[in-house]
Amino acid sequence: MGRKWNNIKYKKAAKDANTSRIYAKFGRELYAAARRGDPDPETNQALKLVIERAKTYNVPKAIIDRAIEKAKGNSDETFEELRYEGFGPNGSMIIVDTLTNNVNRTAAEVRAAFNKNGGNMGVSGSVSYMFDATAVLGIEGKSAEEVLELLMESDIDVRDIIEEDDTVIVYAEPDQFHDVQLAFKNAGITEFAVAELTMLPKNEIVLPEDAQAQFEKLIDALDDLEDVQQIYHNVDLEE
In this predicted model, what pLDDT tens digit does every residue of 117-130 receive, in sequence order? Predict the structure, then answer.
């Protein structure tokens, strides 16, 4: 699973290059999560997860607090979560998760991004069956053996544990996210290199240079859309 983690790092690095955009995306996601339930992260697990993710992207506490306070106010703005699936060059597969207050606008913009950049939209389920919903948590300062022992002591059996550079990555079922996180926190680990609920491809493909350039242009066009929150794909960008 190492290359899959590399692609998560690639995505994270690309987003980190434009902090104003990542802050805006998280502000919207935090607001929506707080509006859908209790604005207290201790009782709203969805909100708590977004906060944990925001921390791994270095989103300032002031932005997190501002979004939650907005949700507590009288704003009647509502957002809907929508998923789009499509294809890029050379059989590449793409999943686009959005959070929108205008479904028609979002659908039109996502479709245009695909059509103008060598891709095409697919129907629901045309791509997602080739991906696995996965919880991914990464920590530093421990070995894979130490993490395995820690999780075994908490009676948590995860999909995989790998060590990459100075980071240990845990791949788990989506519903294990909070259990794994709690096991780490009970062991005194409160900082995470990554804390994501993501979609990992069952198989990755390597694109030729010209197709990869076109693919990256498509991904950038999608990521530039205001309503797009997450993009998942099956392309190994580390080759």
Answer: 999 999 999 999 99
The residues spanned by each domain of the chain are 80-129+202-233
Whether the per-residue pLDDT at 136 is higher than 80: the answer is: yes
Distance separating alpha carbons of residues 98 and 96, to the nearest angstrom: 6
> Nearest-CA neighbor of 176 among 209, 194, 151, 193?
151
CB 71 within 8 A of CB 35: yes
Residue 148, pLDDT above cutoff 90: yes
Interval 15-45: pLDDT, tens: 555 688 888 899 999 999 999 888 888 899 8
Pick the CATH number of 80-129+202-233 from 3.50.80.10, 2.130.10.10, 3.30.70.980, 3.30.43.10: 3.30.70.980
- Cα separation, 144 vs 128, whole angstroms: 30
- Starting at the edge strand found earlier in the chain, the sheet holding 131-140 runs 160-164, 167-172, 131-140, 194-201
Reduced to 3 states (helix: H, G, I; strand: E, B; else coil), residue 185 is helix
CA dihedral over 65, 67, 70, 71, signed as positive or negative:
negative
Residue the block writes with tokens 């209790």: 38
